[in-house]
Amino acid sequence: MLRIGSTLRASRRLLNRQLHFQCPIVAGDSAIAGIAPVLYRRFIPFNYSSCFGNISASTSFFSTLSSNSSIFNAPNTERAEENDSVESNLSVAGDAGVALSEVERVAPRLSDGILDAYLAIELALDSVVKIFTVSSSPNYFLPWQNKSQRETTGSGFVIPGKRILTNAHVVADHTFVLVRKHGSPTKYRATVQAVGHECDLAILVVESEEFWEGMNSLELGDVPFLQEAVSVVGYPQGGDNISVTKGVVSRVEPTQYVHGASQLLAIQIDAAINPGNSGGPAIMGDKVAGVAFQNLSGAENIGYIIPVPVIKHFIAGVEERGEYAGFCSLGLSCQPTENAQIREYFQMQSKMTGVLVSRINPLSDASRVLKKDDIILSFDGVPIASDGTVPFRNRERISFDHLVSMKKPNETAELKVLRNGEVHDFKITLHPLQPLVPVHQFDKLPSYFIFAGLVFIPLTQPFLHEYGEEWYNTSPRRLCERALRELPKKPGEQFIILSQVLMDDINAGYERLAELQVKKVNGVDVLNLKHLRQLVEDGNQKNVRFDLDDERVIVLNYESARIATSRILKRHRIPHAMSIDLTDEQNAAELQSACSI
Fold this sequence. Notes:
By secondary structure, this protein is of the alpha+beta class. The longest helix is centred in the middle third of the chain and has 14 residues, at 308-321. 37% of the residues are buried.
């Protein structure tokens, strides 16, 4: 910890505002190299110049701090004087320069925290970039329209292979992406190579060779231990230049990823992570310990970073398959077995531990071998405690879901299961599972089908989010409950609803049937929206009958409804009666060509 007095205030004449980081500086009058604990301390922004020409930033920085006494006796100044001349900077510093040995001599005199933050800056200067994104999200109430475009910024860093790693939410629903490296006024066009919204990670590529000149990649490290120091580097709000904040690791455990609504391993730190920091690296030593991605609202200095195991799982999946494949799931809902009576009921011996299977996804491979009321004792040979946790590192425990999520798609897992008092060994193939009602719909247009002014859509959580921040309370209660709890029974199944009625003479009287599930068309169970469109346009019957939830019925004359559809589309300025994903290949090509004109 450094003490601040007249020496430091004078030396600030040499510093500019091109780069800054916050570090604890204690008030006092001793020399800058003095390190002593005091009771009062405050945060002072350190600013140093990178305009020393070919002289390295580390040499310049430490040269300033360790130069002769004439500098430290200079008058106080409130802000740095910027000077782009190498000679003038060296003349202010004293002699013609300081050798690297001088830097090595001065470095140990700095506190460890300040030195770690400085080293993080050195690594980040040629690796961390600022990302400028223009995005436009769909309007789920009017799925044929997009909302107004908006501009956001974020951070990213270079990884091996001339790629940039950032957060998925930085480029979600993007229409245009630019990146800018530190010290350059030029922005370069970037394209999104792969994006994983569940793990909130994305990979960008830049074709310009000029951009890669002087850029260095950062190496991925390991999961840090508790109380280890990390430095978060990025471009947060409040300024345009690079920033570094320092913190320590508070906990490591599976956490809710807000963007993808998934439960994956995350690291909590006490460094501030603000808008714009997203996608920047958290550096520990000379390697990346994680990627900054979210904070805890309503709390101070509680931020979260994505750990290296999740990052490597994402990158490996992209490299092996060419695209993001997702994270695996067992497709189970489990209950702890901590109560003595429930353990006795299911014939668990005194030393047995495990979790009770209460629900199984019909589309998972687990439904083939597991049954309700099975007790899962271990996963891949790792014993599962009665609270559902497994050992993790040194005397730490995390949910056994972490072991499942780290498996690659189509890998097998060995489960030891207690059933009716007998122990069985099963092998289950793991793969990503999709819910009946999708949690997110980033980077894709919503599906819709309009017939006689009736707007049919598959229910998604983004549709419910259109009801506002309190969507759980303001959206239709029945739809909300089923969206959160219902499981698919068949592959490709969707939850189809009548979202609204565009009023016309042909549908008068049906307007109150909006927001109900569509179960059947002409007596046939509806599998998904594409199936509904096929049933409607079959044309074998004079009338089309829709069976809705609550035993409600809609009947339309097919020919009259078909003619009315064109009239209604023209009245509401809707370009097409269906989304492009519902058309056949030939019609889709024609529609895509028409949209691009």
